[in-house]
Amino acid sequence: MILVTGGAGFIGANFVLDWLSIYEEPIVNLDKLTYAGNLDTLADIRNDARHVFMHGDIADRETVAALLEKYQPRAIINFAAETHVDRSIHGPEVFIKTNIVGIFNLLESTLSYWKALPPERQAAFRFLHVSTDEVYGTLSPTAEPFTEASPYEPNSPYAASKASSDHLVRAWHCTYGLPTLITNCSNNYGPYHFPEKLIPLTILNALAEKPIPIYGDGKQVRDWLFVKDHCAAIRRVLEGGKAGEGYNVGGWNEKTNLDVVNIICKLLDEARPRPNGDSYSRLIEFVSDRPGHDRRYAIDAGKLERELGWRPAESFETGIKKTVEWYLSHQGWVDNVTSGAYHEWVSQHYGS
Ligand code: NAD
Ligand code: TYD
Q: Judging by beta carbons within 10 Å of its beta carbon (0-12, 13-18, 19+), is residue 251 exposed, middle or buried?
């Protein structure tokens, strides 16, 4: 079986659901259930014997050691992290705790477990760390996309904490021989995305007739990848990736924030016209920019294609259409995640 951490969050839960729809191999899912963890997302596999959910922290060595001892996984895929850049600006401490100290503890627990495995299982074992393109910092409009050789230049507390975790993972490979893999992926979107991030926030604010906040001039560029394509890339790297290597994952889909929001508004105009007949794009409101806001991210995912034959299946146009349709047809899930804690965040961050 495999151990997944953070499997109640956006990408981790999509990964767990996809995995169980493809393979018989069971998953142990360790998640702390922070505000971003949501068991509703896993409701369809509640009674599936192939999925074992454990509520716990990656930093808790006793819990992790007991899990590893009991389930003897052949691989660990680490999704667990604090992930929202704006939250990392308001309160960086928890990012240091989970993304750096938590990863350190998880690596130590994994190393003890791995060292005790028989040689054949040691050789086959993988620790796959899911990371971000934000570790590379920002690009000028004409610069070449980030490759695996790009220097790490993180600009936000979130990006710096993820960069630190990548360095720790690399060091545990180089120093102790732990068979690690790192994936650095661009911005994901798709079903079950928590509505503090741009795409679900835009869909839900539009439907609620609330302002759609665009930071600064909205001309920042992100490379967007449909979450199921990211899950497929992780499965591919897990199967075929070379221990100790890193792989960039991206959608070849660069878009400005303003373009993304306008595309969503157009889809909503067609699917759920506003009562007053206006376009949802009239709800766009330019607000103060994010401090240290990276201007452009772009990923060269060529290594993953050349070496492991992965390419995204969705274009932005097909993926965003599926995403909008998903949000329109999953009102119950949306109502449950937009809990009290979410409202507090919205009034703290956008209040003024
Ligand atoms: P998310 O915030 O939606 O989910 C994170 C999950 O981790 C939650 O279920 C949370 O409860 C859990 N968690 C947090 N701290 C934990 C801890 N100490 N122990 C155990 N569980 C803990 O995040 P996501 O968007 O699904 O991102 C998953 C991973 O992918 C992260 O490592 C992130 O850096 C990386 N990533 C995300 C994106 C993106 O666009 N969302 C892009 C590239 C990489
Ligand atoms: P986000 O979804 O937070 O992802 P990340 O910061 O990891 O890229 O933001 C995506 C882009 O959208 C980023 O450039 C910030 C911008 N943004 C807004 O303009 N308004 C918003 O309300 C939010 C949440 C993000």
A: buried
Burial class (CB in 10 A: 0-12, 13-18, 19+), 90: exposed
Would 100 be classed as within a structural domain? Answer: yes
Distance 286 CA to ligand 2 centre (A): 13
3-state secondary structure of 346: helix
Q: What is the pLDDT of residue 349?
A: 87
Which residue has a Cα nearest atom 22 of ligand 2? 213
Ligand 1 contact, 31 CB (< 6 A): yes
Q: How many helices (H) and strands (E) does the chain have?
A: 14, 12
Give the atom of ligand 1 at the shortest distance from the alpha carbon of 33: 11
Please identify every stretch of the chain with a pLDDT value under 70, giving residue numbers as ranges. 352
CATH of the domain at 57: 3.40.50.720
**Which residue, judged by its Cα, is nearest atom 42 of ligand 1?**
187
The reply to whether 120 falls in a domain is yes
pLDDT of residue 345: 79
What atom in ligand 1 is closest to the CA of residue 12?
26
> Nearest C-alpha to atom 7 of ligand 2 is from which residue?
85
Ligand 1 atom closest to the CA of 57, numbered from 1: 19
The Cβ of residue 175 has, within 10 Å, a number of other Cβ atoms equal to 9
Q: Inter-axis angle of helices 198-207 and 257-271, to 10 degrees? A: 40
For the annotated catalytic residues, the residue numbers are 133-134, 158
- pTM here is 0.97
Within 10 A of 352 (CB to CB), how many other CB atoms are there?
Answer: 7
* Structural domain for 57, as ranges: 2-190+226-252+296-314
From the CA of 222, how far away is ligand 2's center (Å)? 9
58 residue type, one letter: I
